[in-house]
């Protein structure tokens, strides 16, 4: 696995965690508010990870309606490549419990 940085996005803030490899976190996770000043700390974290790893890590985040918009705008402005996934589309009908609220009809 290549190094990745995962973002768990919620309203107004994100948890950020880098992984060197599967199950091998890089440093502790950080919380980043969705403000211009706080997003600078995200850039600092990304640059530190990039320097440590010797390559730009892939940034992965979940589509969250509109909560992810400030993060996407920031990553695009900084020219970072990212992957946005939709968790509902990742779940197959075979992996869902029968009483799952996200079950598609």
How would you describe this protein?
It is a single chain. The chain has helices at residues 36-53, 69-77, 87-90, and strands spanning 4-10, 13-21, 24-33, 58-62, 82-85. It is α/β, with parallel strands linked by helices. Strands 3-2-1-4-5 form a 5-stranded mixed beta sheet.
How many distinct beta strands? 5
Q: Determine the strand fraction and express it as a percent band.
A: 25-35%
Low-confidence stretches are none
Question: Total number of helical segments?
Answer: 3
Radius of gyration (CA) equals: 15 Å
Provide the helix percentage.
25-40%
Topology as a string of helices (H) and strands (E):
EEEHEHEH
Mean model confidence by pLDDT: 83
Alpha carbon gap, first and last residue: 35 Å
**Helix-strand category:** alpha/beta
| Cross-sheet strand order for the largest sheet | 3-2-1-4-5
Short summary:
This protein is an alpha/beta fold.
Ordered list of secondary-structure elements with their pairings:
Layout lengths: L3 E7 L2 E9 L2 E10 L2 H18 L4 E5 L6 H9 L4 E4 L1 H4 L15
Parallel strand pairs: 1-4, 4-5
Antiparallel strand pairs: 1-2, 2-3
Which properties best describe this structure?
105 residues; alpha/beta; five-stranded mixed sheet; 3 helices; 30% helix
